[in-house]
Amino acid sequence: MKILVTGAAGFIGSHVCLSLLERGDEVIGIDNLNDYYDVNLKLDRVKRIENHDNAVNFTFTKVAVEDRPAMERLFAEQRFDKVVHLAAQAGVRYSLENPHAYIDANIVGFMNVLEGCRCNDVQHLVYASSSSVYGANESMPFSVHDNVDHPVSLYAASKKANELMAHTYSHLYNLPTTGLRFFTVYGPWGRPDMSPFLFAKAIFEERPLKVFNYGNHRRDFTYIDDIVEGIVCTLDNTATGNPDWSGENPDAASSKAPWRVYNIGAQTPVHLLEYIETIEQAAGKTAQKELLPMQPGDVPDTYADVEALVKDTGYRPKTDLKTGIKAFVEWYKDYYKIETN
Ligand SMILES: NC(=O)c1ccc[n+]([C@@H]2O[C@H](COP(=O)([O-])OP(=O)(O)OC[C@H]3O[C@@H](n4cnc5c(N)ncnc54)[C@H](O)[C@@H]3O)[C@@H](O)[C@H]2O)c1
């Protein structure tokens, strides 16, 4: 199977490339290697893929998804069987600083991916959505069957827009699409702008860590291996129309068209302070905490209902927090050469 992975130098994308290579797929990875965070970390992730035993089946190209001619060329030349679209401007907080980056990468870029799939008979498009689409919803756990029309950041709005755009292509052109709403992903090779990384860094550097909303958040953290398994599993299980879907009582998670959305989360929300304690234990050091108010665009709690994913694919995330954090902290110490005794 020939598969395009966009965002291949990213945290999740690099792990997905490795997993697909491992099982023998041919993988074309693209990424624009932007400097939203440390570019060396992105290059090291690509190097890691290029060192895989099956790397002969891997090609990496630097492409920006909003570059329409480049994307048209790529799709026409390569004729992918399936696409995993993960390239995006990520991060809730940065969307208040640089909103245009989200329109370029997440809206124009997504459009180019949809058109590439439509014009070149791609069999299935799996793309990253986000738990942030739940926005102002307070009904827990967050269910894919609930309406998500109240985003509280432009990042969230761009991901919800992707789900809507995908639906039109599934409806008009019968393109099978699956949107995956990820819930705070963490693990080895993780993102330096996210709390697990920021917390570990502050703990090792003996600096106070910023704890927003005075630590009263609850987050459904999801270990990277669980996300990768969920992506690969849904990629294999091509979206089909739901014959029971009715326009009179429309289910928000499916359609008559081959379109669906799933949550992927651990289904175990953890209090932020408990989370910090788990990192402290793995690091063998105590954190200094600076308690701060909630940041604009943030939501207080996230909690995934993953039953739709389990029902359709049989897959359920399984890694417990302690195991996942231990693996993350071990990687962090190794990568940044931190000596502890
Ligand atoms: N990590 C999480 O907790 C999380 C949660 C919800 C959703 N997501 C989504 O999952 C996907 C992957 O996230 P990640 O955590 O691996 O982030 P990441 O930033 O590590 O990976 C995204 C990659 O896409 C690349 N990219 C960005 N803009 C691009 C563009 N215009 N053209 C080509 N490449 C571009 C970046 O260089 C980066 O390597 C994203 O769509 C993100 O929005 C992630």
Protein described:
With 341 residues, the chain is α/β, with parallel strands linked by helices. Helices cover 40% and strands 16% of the residues. It has helices at 11-22, 39-50, 68-78, 94-97, 99-119, 154-173, 195-204, 224-236, 272-283, 307-313, 321-335; strands at 2-6, 26-31, 58-62, 82-85, 124-130, 177-182, 185-186, 208-211, 218-219, 222-223, 259-264, 270-271, 288-291. Helix 6 links the parallel strand 5 (124-130) and strand 6 (177-182). The N and C termini lie far apart (47 Å). The mean pLDDT is 95. The protein binds nicotinamide-adenine-dinucleotide. Residues 7, 9-13, 31-34, 42, 64-66, 86-90, 105, 109, 128, 130, 182, 184-185, 191 line the site of nicotinamide-adenine-dinucleotide.
Question: Gist?
Answer:
The protein has helices at residues 11-22, 39-50, 68-78, 94-97, 99-119, 154-173, 195-204, 224-236, 272-283, 307-313, 321-335; strands at residues 2-6, 26-31, 58-62, 82-85, 124-130, 177-182, 185-186, 208-211, 218-219, 222-223, 259-264, 270-271, 288-291.
Keywords:
alpha/beta, 13 strands, about 350 residues, two-stranded parallel ribbon, 11 helices, seven-stranded parallel sheet, binds nicotinamide-adenine-dinucleotide, globular, Rossmann fold
